């Protein structure tokens, strides 16, 4: 290890000399993170779990981009992590975080090999954001940025290993521009016995007719290479083909009108499975069409859309969740005198303690109905249809990022009954710059977000569902001394009602329902200060208090308080 | 305005395309999992049924949910039993039709039969009781040899140890089918052999079909005293007249032997494919003196031989009943 570090430093030294010739760039991140946690739970319920814990780490991500020639770039990033309390190298880990080769062939074809980031449409390949964010306060956003960075959750991209190629043609005739993108990645290595190698590949062709109209074809396949395992290995394939378009109908002085949408089909096959429950083939389709009207003078945009996603529409690339709700979170994984596995709370979700996904999941992952029941798998959530309305106000000096989002959805097919569940989800958010009202130079900003969700179904007693969930996400940041800000934020989640949780087998077939009663309130209140050395160089001290009051039968009340010191630098 | 109409038309078209599966349910039915249980249409049975006339009993019921159900029919005198189980909301000819058979020996007689229907997964469900009287027995399909109902035939033969009584017994509701059966009873401390009855063909043969590979031999046996897995068994001899002279010669013709060892104290159906006699219990070719081929058409005698442990010091007792050959499948009691 010691030799590796010396070699790395020497390598960096050599690269620094070379930098004068602009043959390389150095970028990366560094941070120091210190946590002090305390579990707050009735002593009678838990006299076993150590309540207090202190830990932390120092970390350096050193990224080096080498340009061997004008058309090639080699990106590597090394991570040196030192757990606080490690002694003379004890607790030090050294990892390769990224290796990517990029280039351009003949100034036409761009390619990437190695660690690549991929995103298509929300129905094909899309890393849908986790729950618990509705115009989040800055005090929470600072921490979230860290774990998103660690997990490569850049926007809605998935980090994968493989290769991608893209190029653009400029024909003169029917289309002005045609862009091609394709990729092939490895999702799973074979175990040599029963699990074959799994690949995931696809691409898109975007036909641009003119400034007003473009049509894109998207397709991907997730498939097993059965010959890489034993002869009688199972073979899973999932293919999705969609087409989306964007048509700017008019753009006048007062109003601009746009129509866009996507439609497509999916097909999944389970071949050579010994389990008789495996369906040989399932297919379904979806559409999502919306219009956007931009009222220029009134400075707001109205979007109205309709969608219908079939119950058997399977698009693992669009439906994989970031958070694995079936696994206990990393912090206080088990608690109480009975060693109960702690369920994922939204505190775990927003602080990065929940288990996160790195791979595309062929199965529909479990979710918490209280956090998101309307579209737990993002836009591509199967068995949903209905309308959505979004209102978005354009940013002004005083108010930014203001929106109202409404979803009125219903199941396409009833689950367990002919009667269908209905869902209403509303999200409201805004950022208000108070200082602009009073012409203060120092920033005083209020973040506010509100989410209300209702799930209901009529019918007999055993069919009835009535679940309401309310989420408030608010905060304030005040730069009371230049570069030094006071931060405060809170998140409240209150849910009450009942739901029939869907239980699926390994083939996504519904096999049972879990009738649950939900009655809890979760709250996080956080306060702290932040000092901005520079744009991407921050030191923050925060105290956070999370409390869960679970009023359902056998529910456990507990809380976690946390004090953190976080120094982060991106360069 | 024109543009808005265009958009509206497109959106309306999209809505028109919406699937409307109003009759489809995804997943198991909640009504079956959590719905209340009730009987929507009651069971109605006739008083009598004559299976000889090809009548049958159809259990028609409709219940409120798909759940497990059991229909058990028990003969009042014979103790014969027939059970139907299912997991359907509608009980009908498709899943519960009784043609007079029993699940095992003993078979039903001309008797009153009690019907009991219960729903094991429904705590509050009632148990439904009813009865029906059998006025005619089901007709057996196959080559019937004997059920010992008409006495000991003149052309039959028997062997009993001196301390053994071996004969046809009747009218005590112990038969596998009908009223009578063959019974051995006695203490034989010097030999395993207890007794036998030799059922000889009435003429030159039993007039069995020639194909041994789809012909099943069936017989009911019951071992009731000096029992145990290695204490008693039946030995069945199948003598074939290979040369067609009407006489079996044990030195030149085939005698296939099949052994059935004790399994339990109840009536059991001994059933096997006649062609399987070509091989012994170990899978080796049977050691016989003739051509070695099981040939049903040449069968002229079936000897039913009861043997029991001579050292146990207790009386041995066993019964045999209802010998019949069937084609393609085992006999259904």
Describe what this molecule looks like in 3D.
The complex is a heterodimer of chains A (571) and B (333). Chain A contains 5 helices and 25 strands. With 571 residues, chain A is mainly β. In chain A, a hairpin with a 7-residue loop joins β24 and β25. The longest helix of chain A has 18 residues. By secondary structure, chain B is mainly β. Chain B folds into 2 domains: 107 residues, Immunoglobulin-like, CATH 2.60.40; 185 residues, Galactose-binding domain-like (Jelly Rolls). Helices cover 6% and strands 39% of the residues of chain B. Chain B has 2 helices and 22 strands. Chains A and B meet through β11, β12, β13, β18 and β23 of A and α1, β1 and α2 of B. β18 of chain A pairs parallel with β1 of chain B, so a sheet runs across the interface.
Number of helices of chain A: 5
Query: What's the CATH class of chain A, please?
Result: Mainly Beta
Order of helices and strands of chain A: HEEEEEHEEEEEEEEHEEHEEEEHEEEEEE
CATH H level of the largest domain in chain B: which superfamily?
Answer: Galactose-binding domain-like
Count of helical stretches of chain B: 2
Topology-level CATH name of the largest domain in chain B:
Jelly Rolls
Main sheet: strands, sense, barrel of chain A: 22 strands, antiparallel, barrel
Beta-strand segment tally of chain B: 22
Query: What portion of residues of chain B belong to β-strands?
Result: 35-45%
| Relative helix content of chain A | under 10%
- Per DSSP E runs of 2 or more residues, the count of β-strands of chain A stands at 25
Give a brief outline of the structure.
The complex is a heterodimer of chains A (571) and B (333). Chain A is mainly beta and 571 residues long.
Topology:
The complex is a heterodimer of chains A (571) and B (333).
Chain A: H1 2-19, E1 24-40, E2 52-69, E3 72-83, E4 92-105, E5 109-118, H2 138-150, E6 158-169, E7 177-188, E8 197-208, E9 213-225, E10 235-251, E11 255-271, E12 281-295, E13 300-309, H3 316-319, E14 334-335, E15 340-341, H4 346-351, E16 384-393, E17 399-410, E18 414-415, E19 422-433, H5 434-438, E20 444-457, E21 465-481, E22 484-504, E23 510-534, E24 537-550, E25 558-570
Antiparallel strand pairs in A: 1-2, 1-25, 2-3, 3-4, 4-5, 5-6, 6-7, 7-8, 8-9, 9-10, 10-11, 11-12, 12-13, 13-16, 14-15, 16-17, 17-19, 19-20, 20-21, 21-22, 22-23, 23-24, 24-25
Chain B: H1 2-16, E1 25-26, H2 30-34, E2 39-41, E3 48-50, E4 57-58, E5 61-63, E6 69-75, E7 81-86, E8 90-91, E9 97-98, E10 112-118, E11 128-136, E12 143-146, E13 157-160, E14 164-170, E15 180-186, E16 193-200, E17 215-225, E18 232-240, E19 255-261, E20 268-273, E21 299-308, E22 316-327
Parallel strand pairs in B: 3-11
Antiparallel strand pairs in B: 2-5, 4-9, 5-8, 6-7, 6-10, 10-11, 12-22, 13-16, 14-15, 15-22, 16-21, 17-20, 17-22, 18-19, 18-21
